[in-house]
Amino acid sequence: MKLSVALTLFAAQLATAHYTFPDLIANNTVSSDWQYVRITANHYSNGPVTDVTSDAIRCYELDSTSAGQTGTATVAAGSTVGFKADNTMGHPGYFSAYMTPASPAANSNQAGLGKTWFKIWEWSPTFSPSTGLVFASENIQQFTFTIPKNVPSGQYLIRGEQIALHVASSVGGAQFYIGCAQVNVINGGSGKPSPTVSFPGAYSATDPGILINIYSLPSNYTGYKAPGPAVWSG
Q1: How far apart are CA 104 and CA 108, in angstroms?
Q2: N or C, which terminus of the chain has less Cβ within 10 Å?
Q3: pTM, whole model, 2 decimals?
């Protein structure tokens, strides 16, 4: 009985340490849960994706009905958007945001399946030999970023992600927390976003920003190397 209680408490602690990104921040408003963000497979467990080669690394949808049951928010190019988590994000890690044109529409299952994703923002830990890696992003509940002003108008998916690195010292240890919001961008420009990548495909399990022991860095370490493409600022 005592062992059963202990295991239950341990499982509860694990769940509360993890999180989802159910709410889109846009137009100075936080949406309701899963209003504009595709409901994810971890909406109850809060567990992360750990396999960068799986389809779950794209948007972590619950199933094929997630896209069609999710609304599409209208946002302006150049405006601030973001994601709010359902829990304090206590794990140290790297944050990023990607966009992809959504064809035929943001609420379609076909959106984002190709090599069409481009990175629009990232938040990396800082490093110095005296301090090691410093994660200013730790213990927050939301993160925001700007949609590039020159992104063409149209429907998109916005993919918010944190790669938690507290147990990333072995292959498959890094934890990916992901949410994909469906948006219609207005007042856009004529930019040509690049470089573009696919999910899966953008990451390797052995990328130095994914396979890393943040508590025991090599003596010649010079700083965090973000996985994926360079940021397109528009």
Answers
A1: 7
A2: N
A3: 0.92
> Do 70 and 36 meet the contact criterion of CB atoms below 8 Å apart?
yes
Under 8 Å CB-to-CB from 173, ≥6 apart: which residues? 50, 167, 211
* Residue 81 in tokens: 């958007």
Question: 144 exposed, middle or buried (CB, 10 Å; 0-12, 13-18, 19+)?
Answer: middle
Check residue 215 and give left, alpha or beta (phi > 0: left; psi -120 to 50: alpha).
alpha
- Tokens found for residue 75: 């946002």
- In this structure, the number of other CB atoms found within 10 A of the CB of residue 37 comes to 28
Output the CA–CA distances (angstroms, integers) from residue 124 to 143, 165, 217, 234, in the order listed.
13, 12, 16, 20
If the chain, 234 residues long, is cut into consecutive pieces of 10 residues, what is the mean pLDDT of each piece?
34 60 97 98 96 98 97 98 95 97 97 98 96 90 98 98 97 98 98 98 98 96 98 93
Please report the pLDDT score of residue 120 as a whole number: 98
**Predicted pLDDT at 139:** 87
DSSP classification of residue 58: H
End-to-end, the C-alpha distance of the chain in Å comes to 59
- List the Cα angle 141/7/12 in 5-degree steps: 20
Which of 42, 126, 138, 56 minimizes the C-alpha distance to 93?
Answer: 138
